[in-house]
TrEMBL record:
Alphabetical list of Gene3D superfamilies matching this protein: 3.30.1640.30, Trypsin-like serine proteases
One Pfam family recorded for the sequence: Trypsin
Domain Peptidase S1, chain residue ranges per copy: 155-409
Name by which UniProt lists this protein: Peptidase S1 domain-containing protein
Organism of provenance: Trichogramma kaykai
């Protein structure tokens, strides 16, 4: 189970009846400890490191049985900074083990709706459900009946995307170069897959120019908007796939870990990862494939788009795709790898829209049904030119699921592997 910040605030250890002595201790701790300096402030719902370096979630002290036991055992006082995240008013926010937060939740599925978010507590993982599938089920429950915008747009020369249509689309912010060194430019895209992880292309963070993004921007379809929906969050970890090499386009996939968890809303939500193999691409012939991004608006234009654009796309088989990329022998020494790469094009006679520079790292999305969690099946990797008749190459998500899950959901992934006897 992934725990949202809104969920953390609602978890109550209802099955535990704490004595008045404990409540008094916690009250005194919260009031007196607020005067102490906090080295790195984290907020309720943020991920944090436990003393054993495992991941935890920042949680109000009265809602974390693990830390409550420390208080009752006399191991935690007003001067204790160990495991402290921050304060909310006079309440200490502590780093609580993920398993402890989960165990204090109800073991059934319930949904609570507020004006901005939907909170779901999930039952524990079933025996053979992998983390990506479990997350998808949770996301589907959270957005059911809420995010029903119809997807109808395209990247090159397309229509404007509606607010909240792609709440998982992320723009990666880089510092400019030369005279624009103090200006933020959004040269790559990404996909929010957990509250603190973004999926993108490895070449966006590991490249010959030695440039990497310092922040993500999410929540608004226009890069110039300054509204209540937009969130700017710093990046604290850049993880390119270990087999990625700068001089090729294989294994072009990466993950970013954010400084804090996003605040979920109608315009900010993680998306499903495709957890099924794409063995038979013919079965997707009538499906809706969409690419999103903030790349060039015009085929020959240099300026970047302020708006997300999308378009219905189609798969191209490996042999046909390789015909287009014969001249790329240095970057595609083995040709297009049908196991890890997808070749996609717009077959329309009037528009050959596809992805452009600036769309790199953005998602290739498989549209299922309105109001349900769509899934990301690819990451925009490379192409020959914007809007041409040449297909673009995307990194397929499914072959990299083990690597992604081990980073985005390490505890759940380890438990799933253990159940499989790995």
């Amino acid at each position: 189970m992934r725990v949202t910040s809104s969920r953390i605030k609602r978890i109550r250890p209802s099955s535990l009846m704490w004595p008045a002595r404990f409540l008094l201790i916690v009250s005194l701790l919260s009031r007196s400890a607020s005067a102490f300096y906090i080295e790195q402030e984290l907020y309720a719902g943020s991920e944090c490191r436990m003393e054993d370096s495992s991941w935890g979630v920042c949680t109000p002290l009265p809602e974390c049985p693990y830390r409550i036991k420390e208080v009752l055992a006399g191991q935690r006082s007003a001067t204790t900074t160990r495991g402290r995240c921050s304060f909310e008013h006079t309440t200490e926010i502590v780093c609580c083990p993920l398993w402890d937060v989960t165990s204090s939740s109800k073991q059934t599925t319930t949904t609570t709706t507020t004006t901005t978010t939907t909170t779901t507590t999930q039952a524990p993982f079933t025996n053979y459900v992998r983390p990506a599938e479990e997350a998808c089920q949770e996301y589907d429950n959270e957005i059911s009946g809420k995010n029903t915008e119809k997807v109808t747009t395209n990247i090159i020369g397309g229509e404007t995307v509606k607010q909240g249509e792609f709440p998982f689309a992320v723009a990666l912010g880089f510092w400019g170069t030369g005279l624009d060194a103090k200006k933020v430019v959004y040269d790559c895209g990404g996909t929010l897959i957990t509250l603190r992880h973004v999926l993108t292309a490895a070449h966006c963070i590991n490249n010959m120019d030695e440039r990497k993004p310092f922040e993500v921007r999410i929540g608004s379809v226009n890069l110039n908007d300054r509204n209540e929906y937009t969130q700017h969050i710093g990046i604290v970890e850049w993880i390119s796939h270990p087999d990625y090499r700068r001089n090729s386009v294989y294994n072009d996939i990466a993950l970013l870990r954010l400084r804090r968890a996003v605040d979920t809303s109608r315009t900010v939500q993680p998306v499903c990862l495709n957890y099924l193999p794409l063995n038979n691409l013919a079965s997707y012939a009538n499906s809706s494939l969409i690419a999103t991004g903030w790349g060039n608006i015009d085929i020959d234009g240099e300026r970047g788009s302020d708006l997300k654009k999308t378009h219905n796309l189609s798969f191209v088989n490996r042999n046909d795709c390789n015909q287009y990329y014969k001249s790329w022998s240095s970057k595609l020494r083995r040709g297009v790898d049908e196991n890890t790469q997808l070749c996609v094009i717009d077959r329309s006679l009037t528009q050959r829209s596809d992805s452009c520079q600036g769309d790199s790292g953005g998602p290739l999305i498989f549209i299922t049904k309105p109001g349900a969690a769509n899934s990301v099946i690819g990451v925009t990797s490379t192409g020959q030119s914007c809007g041409s008749s040449v297909p673009s190459i995307y990194t397929s998500v499914y072959p990299y699921l083990d690597w992604i899950e081990s980073i985005a959901w390490p505890r759940e992934y380890a438990a799933w592997q253990s159940r499989l006897g790995a």
